[in-house]
Specification:
alpha/beta; Rossmann fold; 7 strands; about 15% strand
């Protein structure tokens, strides 16, 4: 049941959360979940090649465009709680101070679900670092012995990894498929905000169709037209197989 769920999404760069989980985010918000998005960097150095081709481009001009794009996309998805840490990218340096900041964030949100990057992205070390960073911080957030004044320890949450762009090359294995049919148009509109990575709009549009096919075939539910897939960090636990 989505109603009342608390979800934390941690995105390495300005557009990652939209390409890889925009439909799920929009669906959860529409159905009564609370979703917070943390964007660690704008992706100025490594994910804005088309913008750097513009005459007179500077780091500040690229950041301004990326900021506008991701803010507009978040609004389309229904995200009202989004936080920008404005870190450098390519490479991304994740310090002890940033670990404490993320643990504070997790303890403030008290998430049932965390969505972030999967463990391996063969062409993007920033994504790999963020995956490990979020996992480590989640363990610290759950630990009573990690004492951070003014915070309350979290309960064990479920962690899910985005599907990377280079799916097969990254040895990605889907663990969960989420029907996003009701939010598909929102996702497409949000993706179209990003002019710096226009090639990914078509890719993730096609991917939603492909994963929708998989979701129909596996579930037998013919109403599933579009879907997103995620890797499961942990096995599913319950009182029955489902």
């Amino acid at each position: 049941m989505i109603q009342g769920k608390k979800v934390l999404v941690v995105s390495a760069h300005a557009a990652d959360y939209v390409w890889r989980s925009g439909g799920t985010i929009a669906k959860y918000i529409k159905n009564g979940a609370t979703v917070k998005v943390v964007v660690l960097s704008y992706g100025v150095r490594g994910e804005s090649n088309d913008l750097w081709n513009q005459e007179g481009a500077t780091a500040e001009s690229v950041k301004s465009i990326r900021s506008g794009e991701t803010t507009a996309a978040a609004k389309i998805l229904g995200v009202s709680d989004i936080e920008f840490w404005d870190l450098d990218d390519y490479p991304m340096t994740l310090t002890k101070e940033l670990e404490d900041r993320m643990v504070r964030t997790m303890r403030a949100v008290q998430p049932d679900i965390i969505i972030t990057h999967d463990k391996i992205d063969v062409l993007n070390p920033d994504h790999n670092q963020v995956s490990d960073f979020v996992f480590r911080c989640s363990i610290m957030s759950n630990s009573n012995g990690v004492r951070i004044e003014g915070t309350k320890t979290t309960k064990q949450m479920r962690l899910f990894g985005f599907e990377p762009h280079q799916t097969e090359l990254s040895s990605y294995v889907p663990g969960s498929f989420i029907d996003i049919t009701e939010a598909y148009e929102q996702k497409v509109a949000a993706m179209q905000c990003f002019k710096a990575q226009g090639h990914l709009i078509e890719y993730y549009t096609q991917r939603a169709f492909l994963r929708g096919n998989h979701a129909r075939r596996i579930s037998g539910n013919k109403s599933y037209k579009y879907a997103e897939s995620f890797a499961n960090f942990f096995p599913v636990v319950g009182e029955e197989l489902y």
